Amino acid sequence: MKLLSKIKQFAVENQFVKSLWGMWPFVKPYFPKVVLGLLLTIPVGMLDALIALFLKPYMDNIMVAKESSSFIYVPFVIVGFTILQGVFNFLAVYVNGWTANKITLRIKQVLFDKLLSLSPVFFDKMTSGAVIFRFSRDAETASNGLINNVKTIVTRVFSIISLVGVLIYNSLHLTVISVFVLGCAFLPLYFVKKRMKIVFEKSVSVESDIVTAYNETFAGNKTITSYNLQKHKTGSFDGLMGKSFNLKMVMLKNTAWLSPVMHIISSFGVAGVVFFGTYLVLNNTITSGNFVSFLAALMMLYTPVKSIGQQFISIQGSFMAMDRLLNMLKMKPAVRDIETETPVELKSFDKEIMFDKVSFSYDNFKTVIDDISLTVKKGETVALVGNSGGGKTTLVNLILRFYDVKKGNIKIDGINLRKISLKSLRDRISVVFQDNFLFSGTIRDNIMLGNPDASEEELRRAVSMSCLDEVIAGFERGIDTVIGERGIILSGGQKQRVAVARAILKDAPIVILDEATSALDNKSEKEMQKAFDNLMKDKTIIVIAHRLSTVQHADKILVLDKGKIVEQGAHEELLNIENGVYRQLYQIQFKN
Q1: Which terminal residue of the chain, N or C, has fewer Cβ atoms less than 10 Å from its own Cβ?
Q2: Confidence band, pLDDT 50/70/90 cuts, at residue 356
Q3: What is the DSSP annotation of 158-219?
Q4: Mind listing the pLDDT tens digit for each residue in 55-94?
Q5: What would the DSSP string read from start to end of 218-243?
Q6: Secondary structure element (H or E) that encloses residue 84, with its range
Q7: Residue 220 to residue 228: CA distance in whole angstroms
Q8: How confident is the model at residue 514, as a pLDDT?
Q9: What pLDDT, on a 0 to 100 scale, did the predictor assign at position 412?
Q10: In this structure, what is the dihedral angle of CA atoms 392, 398, 403, 405, given to the nearest 10 degrees?
């Protein structure tokens, strides 16, 4: 029991072991293949020793004893050993490559699921470059590094064991000198390890920023072009490349000396062996064959030391990627289903949405929603208006549980929002945003996201109700037209109609329109109004609008300012409030 406890404690404290253990769930399904790949590496390492061992009889029998009859077999033995080693090496590389790619695939699938489960809070704080780096590149670095490094370690271990066996077989005295020097050669690694971790962390941050720069250039190419920002963006990118270069040079400076220093230390071992070995040969303690075989094994043993610097960088990088990957997998969404009890399934919406003294802030300092209480009854149309930054969008984000309230409660049909399962809550709400995101694919693909199980008849009805018929008719392939990334070939109004069709197909009882017409001109807005009317039919509507013309017929208008409801009522009521905020907004928009 004490031994098991000590092993556990070692695993917890040792970062290397902890990282390997953390990767076990991904390795487990392919463990037989992993074992096979590692078994195939054993002969690759051990055959080095056989070649060195073969040199003893070759030297003693042919070169010294002049037994010419044995000479004919030598070329065949050398070629045979090499072919055998090559076959095993190919099989090991193939099996290990297959396993590494399978593990990478599984890690990426799990990480993508994790990414989809995270709340907007996470994306608010992360850049696109950091997400790509952590969820894609780290997966490849970790899995490939795990398999390749373990393969290298196993090969090296069995190579070292077999080569040391050859050393001992030929001369125990010379072995003591060689192993002692080899141990000294690895001491410099201890001094580099901690320093390299800091450099690696900085490098990951800079590389993430570089990926973000590429993404922003792609997404913001029109802004860059129209504002002639090429020089500015080039300067910014050059700065990032300069940081990347400096960090790589720091890394190089901290590791480039390893190989020469270890090579120099190893040379003392070789020199000692040559000096002492020559003495042993001259005194007939060992044969010339022993000495040549020993020297060949020693050179094979010391050869990996020459490239240890680059290998050390690779190993450190892969294990740091494993640590980042495991930390990402441990991350829990800021907003998630209640864990202490079974979440309530919201099967319908029958009564009301109620805000009870709700307060919220994004950073725990600046209050965005301040002690708001309101009720939205089933079938009502409630409009949220006010100046920018008043808290309108935040209010609807809280209904969708993109974020959780800091104080107070939000209830749907008397059930606290926190107790409702996220899936069932969002199944009951359709949203049309100001800037609706369309995915790469066809118009059909994007509409069907509202209800993947919808029939062709339901799809046609949604297209008709969203006034999308004319748009589709203008394309050669109609509804199956590929619209490109973010729907690049569609205009703003056309994108809105696709989004409305998607929302109609979803047929949720609650509809949120988040400034859905603010990006449209007056003509497009009028054309879209019929589509919105169809979407809003028999639904509970919460609409955010800057244009007051779109909310005049709402059952209730809430005027928000600095996170508070300062006025509420119907359009005519609010217009009759002397010096009222709504009245001032109305006069500004309709002064002509």
Answers
A1: C
A2: very high
A3: HHHHHHHHHHHHH-HHHHHHHHHHHHHHTTHHHHHHHHHHHHHHHHHHHHHHHHHHHHHHHH
A4: 777 777 766 666 655 556 667 777 887 888 889 889 988 8
A5: HHTHHHHHHTT-HHHHHHHHHHHHHH
A6: helix 73-117
A7: 12
A8: 84
A9: 93
A10: 100
DSSP state of 451: -
Number of other residues whose CB lies within 10 A of the CB of residue 357:
12
Give the model confidence (pLDDT) of 545-590 as tens digits. 877 777 888 889 999 988 888 988 888 888 888 888 888 888 887 7
* Short-list 23, 86, 280, CA closest to 175: 280
Task: Give the Å distances, CA to CA, from 354 to 152, 357, 359, 569.
Answer: 62, 10, 13, 17
Give Cα separations from 180 to 184, 314, 395 (angstroms): 6, 26, 70
Report d(CA 375, CA 382) in Å as an integer. 9
353: left (phi over 0), alpha (psi -120 to 50) or beta: beta
CB burial class (10 A; 0-12, 13-18, 19+) of residue 48? buried
Q: Which tokens sit at 16?
A: 């290397």
Q: What whole-number distance in Å separates Cα of residue 483 and Cα of residue 491?
A: 11
Closest CA to 575 of 552, 555, 592: 552
In this structure, the number of other CB atoms found within 10 A of the CB of residue 245 comes to 11
User: Among the listed ranges 249-263, 446-460, 512-526, which one has the minimum average pLDDT value?
Assistant: 512-526
What Rg do the C-alpha atoms of the chain give, in angstroms? 35
The CA-atom distances, in angstroms, between 388 and each of 177, 393, 559, 561 are: 78, 10, 12, 9
- The number of angstroms, rounded, from the C-alpha of 157 to the middle of its chain's C-alpha atoms is 33
The residues pairing with 442 across neighbouring beta strands, listed in sequence order, are 482
**DSSP bridge pairs for 358:** 372
Bridge partner residues of 565 (DSSP): 560
| 467-482 pLDDT, tens digit each | 888 888 888 888 898 8
pLDDT at 528 exceeding the cut of 80: no
Neighbours of 83 (CB within 10 A): 10
Residue the block writes with tokens 């009951």: 428
For residue 521, pLDDT over 70 is answered with no
* Cα separation, 451 vs 448, whole angstroms: 5
* pLDDT tier for residue 317 given thresholds of 50, 70 and 90: confident
Nearest CA-CA partner of 103 in 318, 403, 366: 318
Amino acid at 170: N
| Phi, psi (rounded to 5 degrees) for 336 | -150, 170
- Contacts of residue 329, Cβ cutoff 8 Å, sequence gap at least 6: 110, 111, 114
Q: At how many degrees (to 10) do helices 308-330 and 288-306 cross? A: 50
For residue 569, give the H/E element and its range.
strand 564-569
- Dist. CA 569–CA 559, nearest whole Å: 9
